[in-house]
Amino acid sequence: MSTIEFNEALIDLQGNLFSFALNFTKNREDARDLTQETLLKAINYRSYYTPNTNFKAWVFTIMRNIFINQYRRNAKTRMIFDHSEDSYMVTNHKSSMGSPTERIATKEITQKIEDLTDELRTPFKMHFEGYKYKEIADSMKLPIGTIKSRIFIARKRLMDQLPDYQYLDN
Predict the structure, then answer these.
(1) Contact, 123 vs 136, CB < 8 A?
(2) What is the tens place of the pLDDT at every residue in 11-31?
(3) What is the span of the domain harbouring residue 107?
(4) Of 49, 45, 44, 38, nearest to 14 (Cα)?
(5) Domain of 26: which CATH number?
(6) Are 10 and 59 in contact, with CB atoms under 8 Å apart?
(7) What is the pTM assigned to this prediction?
(8) Exposed (0-12), middle (13-18) or buried (19+): which is 159, by Cβ within 10 Å?
(9) Quick one: which of 74, 72, 49 has its CA closest to 59?
């Protein structure tokens, strides 16, 4: 596929991409941004497109991945944007004090985590902090399967030791 054909195919998809983005974002401005970012990424990664395959699916996958990555990034920072005229940034978390029950629960859960052996506690805490399995494996110089296994075992032990907290929703 030549560069001109590639660009024309992208332009032809632009309306469909915007509609797809609007389903994700539920906001016209965010949908425009997502569409623009998708087009830019598709152009930048043009060499990764395999000719004679489903071009539309390839571009829509790029959009979906961008949206998922942005969502995860925003969830990690726990920030929301107030769309009022002044557009203030607001943190989306409860007061640090919490209720007495929450403080007791947090203390109990933290203690159980600290009671885990180092080989279980370290990968579990890193995973909880948002590190990927590969990053943990590289950091600890262990195979990724070992890391996954240790995190699973740590979760299982914590669930066994803290049965009252198993089904709590935030």
Answers:
(1) yes
(2) 999 999 999 888 888 888 988
(3) 100-165
(4) 38
(5) 1.10.1740.10
(6) yes
(7) 0.45
(8) exposed
(9) 49
